[in-house]
Amino acid sequence: ADEFGNAVALSGDGLTALVGAILTAKGATAHAIGLTAGRLVRAIVKNENIIIPVSIRVEQNLCLSVPCQVNSRGTGPALHVPMSEGELNSFEKSLAVVRKACQLLP
C-alpha cells in the first residue's frame, strides 16, 4: 500500500511477470487484454485504488498510456513518475513521434 491506501501496482516487474505467466500458460498474450479489462472493471466496481497505465489526454489532441489511479470515480490524473534526465529525454522523443504520427492521420 502507498499514499492511496490499498493501491496495487500493475506495472514494471509485476506486469512483466503477469505477461510471462500468460505466455507460459497460453502461448500468447492476447488473453492479457481480457485480464486487464477485467482488472479495470473490478477496480471501478469495487472502488479499489489501483495504479495502472491507462490512456489519458496529456495535451490537446494527444493521449498516452501513463500510470494513473483507477477507482469508482474513474481515472485520476497522471501520477508523477520520477525520471532521470535520459529517461525524460527518451519520453520527450516518444511524445514527438506520437505528435508527428497524429498529424499524419486524416
Question: What this model shows, in words?
Answer:
The protein is of the alpha+beta class and 106 residues long. It has helices at 12-26, 30-45, 85-104, and strands spanning 50-59, 62-71, 74-78. It has three helices and three strands, in the order ααβββα. It is globular, with a radius of gyration of 16 Å. The termini are far apart.
| Intertermini distance | 44 Å
> What oligomerization state is this entry in?
single chain
State the major sheet: 3 strands, antiparallel
What is the tally of beta strands?
A: 3
Mean pLDDT: 79
Widest sheet: strand ordering? 1-2-3
Report helical residue fraction: 40-55%
Given as residue ranges, the uncertain stretches (5+ residues, pLDDT < 50) are 1-10
Number of helices: 3
Shape: globular
Give a short summary of the structure:
By secondary structure, this protein is α+β, with helices and mostly antiparallel strands. It is built from 3 helices and 3 strands; from the N terminus they run H-H-E-E-E-H. The longest helix is centred in the last third of the chain and has 20 residues, at 85-104.
